[in-house]
Amino acid sequence: MGNLRKNIRVLKEMVYLRFHRMVVSRLDFFAPFFIDGILFVVQLLAFNVVYSNVDKIGTWGHGEMVLYIGTFSLINAINMVVYFFGVNGIPSKIKSGELDLYLSKPVSPLFHLSFEKTSPGSLPLAAMGICIILYGASILDVKPGIAQIIQYIFWVLVMSVLYYDMEVIIRSVPLYTVSMARMEQIEEVGIDLCMKLPGTAFYGIYKVIFYIILPYGIMATLPVQSIISEMDLWTGIYGIFIVIIFSCITCAVWKYGLKHYNSASS
Asked: How many Å apart are CA 54 and CA 42, to the nearest integer?
């Protein structure tokens, strides 16, 4: 509990300092609003082009797919706001030796690296994602109760943890090898595909890949299934199990990598 309270205090201070620096530099503060807004519009136009003449993707119709796109956008927005820019800088800090500074501080280096660059400028992307979700719910005439809304929020947060785990695992590769370009390409292809196709559309070997090996296929699928009452008990258990497994893998990969980390100054 003592470590938890310390980490929370550190997090609050890092968020305050990050927000203060962004406000001082107006370009840094408003640029993410503009860039993320353009990105969102491009994604929405691409969605309309791909799905305007398609009745169903797997077992899901237009309404479910709108919910899916909105949910993936919301999870990605949480990623961008909270930890993406911090986690994304891990490889460069490993290669430059700057990781040494984080190892010398009285707080978890991964915690510090992950949350030192929160980005309030990406909040509009979350708002836009919520708008798509509400639109999808109106198409399906879904009127969730409090329990369903809580369940949906729970799965969005749990899948955000899974997203974080995947990013940290991939960006910890430089602790073991010099190049990680191929890993980043795998991540980009996986996310790009799973932003267009829900997990319900995968079968056979593709389901093994995107449900188990690279579980991007469940990130937005499970929250949507929870709110449209399509999730059964075993699917829920499986989702929790996958997140726990990948969280354990993340801790192991990071800790084992630090033991074999050679400082740039050594």
From this structure: 19
Question: Based on the number of CB atoms within 10 Å of its own CB, is 108 exposed (0-12), middle (13-18) or buried (19 or more)?
Answer: middle
Per-residue pLDDT of the chain (266 residues; tens, 9 = 90+): 555 565 556 555 555 555 555 544 554 555 555 666 666 666 666 666 666 666 777 788 888 888 998 999 899 889 988 888 889 889 888 888 888 888 887 778 888 888 887 777 777 788 888 988 998 899 888 888 898 999 999 999 999 999 999 999 999 888 887 666 677 778 888 888 888 888 988 989 999 999 999 999 999 999 999 999 899 999 999 999 999 999 999 999 999 988 877 765 54
Q: Are residues 114 and 164 in contact, defined by beta-carbon separation less than 8 angstroms?
A: yes
- Contact (Cβ atoms closer than 8 angstroms) between residue 94 and residue 175: yes
Q: What share of the chain is helix, strand, coil (3-state, %, to 5)?
A: 80, 0, 20
CA nearest to 173, candidates 80, 95, 263: 95
Q: What is the pTM of this model?
A: 0.85
Residue 23 token pair: 């406000």
Distance CA 74, CA 238 (A): 22
Q: Which two tokens stand for residue 210?
A: 């995107």
